[in-house]
Amino acid sequence: MQSAVDLARSGLGSDTGQRTLRRTAPWIVLAAILVSLLSLLPLAFIIWIAVQTGWETVSALVFRPRVGELLVNTGLLVLLAVPIAIVLSVALAWLTERSDLPGARLWAWLCVAPLAIPAFVHSYAWITMVPRLHGLWAGVLVSVIAYFPFLYLTVSAALRRLDPGLEDAAAALGLGPWRVFLRVVLPQLRLAICGGSLLVALHLLAEYGLYVFIRFDTFTTAIVDQFQSTFNGPAANMLAGVLVSCCFVLLGIEVLVRGEERYARVGSGAARYQQRARLGRATIPGLLLLLATTLLALGVPFVTIGRWLVAGGADVWRFDEIGLALGQTLLLALAGALLATVAAMPMAWISIRAPGPLQRLLEGCNYIVGSLPGAVIALALVTITVRIALPLYQTLFTILIAYALMFLPRALVSLRASIAQAPVELERAASSLGRPPLNALWSTTIRLSAPGAAAGMALVALGIMNELTATQMLAPNGTRTLAMAFWSYSGEIDYASAAPYAFIMVAMSLPLTWLLYVQSKRMAGR
């Protein structure tokens, strides 16, 4: 029996289809090229520094034992954390979406809720509860807990959209439940798993605060340390160059695994919901898995923050400082999320509608910048503004551009998955009825992908509220976000004073995680 994805193959990837789509909306291709070129600015900055430094110095900085140690640490972190997150997310998504598990809706929300807690707050909670927690396995534990919801969201949303008729057909041909899942369900989850895994891996490459708390050295922590000591030294830029190479490897793996299969249908499939599987004696293990995940991802941070709030009392609530930090954080998060989502739309459309060598190249440019730490992107923009556009140095415009570059992959992954489920035949039908290309695109694909755009904006806003290094380097004088205030107090080992800022960041993020959960269900028509 062919896999479900094989049954849905289409000729949309042909050269003729690509030419037709590009002629229909050339402005989309142009917009995607402009955004991709802007995304290359940090990489161009690294190359420029390397050229100025000279080959002898570059080779001495790159080919040394310290770089090998960082490469092993970062590689092991990705190789261990990402597969664990995939298995955990697929298991949780199946339990909450396809089984008769008691309280499935509540458990589904609890699986998304850890996104409301910044990664460095997860690490802060664990290190204050278990002071001896450090090293590789500590990094894997906290990374999986902090980032598995990215995978859970995409996989659970894909599970809701699957046509149950395909699984019924496989079962009628004699396949058991496990073989149906492996041969029919899992292939249809490939796009969701690839997108979510790439997003998690890129976050692992770029994360800084989480690994500082647990004292685990990665390329990002080493780069930031170098920048803090020499500001714009060549050693940090060469480390960033190696980090970009790691990103190329991840992109290549994702491209090979994802393939070019089509995942959309013209019709909606069977007009019924998938019948939930009976767990029977597996109900207790399923509940225990969800309970353990919830306690690790939510229980530890909430207990730790609550303990420090009680210990600090009323004195730690400095409402004048907190109010200023809250207002500035909201402004930056909303403006940055809107800009990143608008910038990602053209590339997401081309990724699905016109796959090919140009699309792969442009999409890779957008993902490369997501693997760079905020310090590298910030210093690239500092150099450009100081040398070329001095009036833009440390302005709101510059910090928003940095946010758009850093969090473009979050918006792109959400939009790509949403557009993939909007059939191109609807665009063609609208055009054949006489609508102009832009009107046809707006009335079909853009409207159908609106839930994905909202989810992407929420993901970007979450990232901006938790961003630290680029904000410190690029924000206008006087800016003090919640994350900056939290990091300042925790750096002084004043965990009680840092607790209110951690609490507010979590409280602000919870509505956004609820929006992600609701929009993922709307994408499935529920």
Automatic annotation (TrEMBL):
Major localisation: membrane
Annotated coiled-coil segments of the chain: none
Keyword match Transmembrane helix: yes
InterPro entries, per database record: MetI-like (IPR000515), MetI-like_sf (IPR035906)
Boundaries of every ABC transmembrane type-1 domain copy: 71-257, 326-516
Topological category with respect to the lipid bilayer: Multi-pass membrane protein
Localization per record: Cell inner membrane; Cell membrane
Keyword Membrane attributed: yes
Transmembrane segments: 27-50, 70-94, 106-127, 133-153, 189-214, 234-257, 286-310, 330-352, 364-386, 392-413, 453-475, 495-517
Alphabetized UniProt keyword annotations: Cell inner membrane, Cell membrane, Membrane, Transmembrane, Transmembrane helix, Transport
Matches recorded under Gene3D superfamilies: MetI-like
Family: Belongs to the binding-protein-dependent transport system permease family.
Name the UniProt record assigns to this protein: Iron ABC transporter permease
